[in-house]
Amino acid sequence: MRALATTWILCGHFLDWRSHRGLFTGFLARGNVPVCYYIVLSGFVTHWAYGKHNFALHAPELQSFFRTRLGRIAFSYYFFFGLGLVQRVMDDWPLSPMCTGLGALMLEAWDPACEIVIQSFTWPSAYAQYGPGPNPAGWTIGTLVFCWVCYPVLAVTLHRAVGPPGEGRWQQLLGLAIVAYVLAVLPPLMMLRMNAHRPDGQRIPALTMQYLEEFPPCRLADFSLGVLTAALMKLPGATEWTGWPLVGWGAALTLVALVLCAPLQLPKLPGHLRHDAEALMVSGPSALWALMIAAMASPHTWLARHPMLIRVGQYSFAAYLLQFWLAHIFVELQKCASGHKHGLQPWWMLAFIFCVWTLASVYTECVELPFVRVLRGTIGWVQSFHRAMPGQL
Question: Which residues have a Cβ under 8 Å from the Cβ of 336 and sit 6 or more positions away?
């Protein structure tokens, strides 16, 4: 599922779907939909792995949580951040000082909020004269970092409100999950209702759409939905229900039908962001993603447990981070070969996807996994050192 979601994101970002309209245009153009999957999945995996930890203030569990969650992520994030920075400097591309500075702190997701503040005190064009940061994909990591920082508070609150993991009542958890979903989709619904009298493109402007998609607090409800889904699946007997495969396939088919059939409001020019009702696609499918993730947690959903699919899914993080760096190379090659510069043509896109996954697998196997082994060994040595010298450090 992670591999399919990442490939969908690649198509939404770089495929020239403006010049090739067809049956699957609505599907391929909405690369923001699978981003919601990753945020919900992160909440699910985080609570599935750490739901029983006692996140008391200054507790060792809290330190271990942040060390584990951020260690592997930070290495790959800064590796591709530096790669993108070198590429943009060598090509003499403009860089946004604000976006680059925030990206260096893993806070690039806060850039839309800073942009709104800056435009409130300066001319609107003062900020737009700069390009994006070294790695435009980094905003997703910044959003997840914010959610991970909030997770210990969410876990403690959930524990006090419902009870220990595996002992809560499903009615309470289901009610909280519904509340989380309503909070996720309520902002764009309210904006569309209040701005219904405005012309197209001004009901939810492009910058506001970007704010709803990238601003970390706006995505906390999606993350919380994943946390609550994991809490539901931890209840006794939840994963043993034999109907989960039907639920998963039903949610998947519903999502595909929704994305294909919903009217697509295409940007007028290449590079312009989506607007108006497209904002509903930011968090609207989160409930369907949650159902699919819950179904994949069941032992009866055998397809999601194939070792080869799991292995390919491990490369998805690297594929997501290197996409813009490699896409710049492919766009330049295509421009030299055919003069086309707005998105990748289909054959170029196939070659691009193949290269992305090939490089992602090489990086993961030869760089990231060796680093993870060293990191785990170092953490284990430090922990054993602390246990051997109690009260002396």
Answer: none
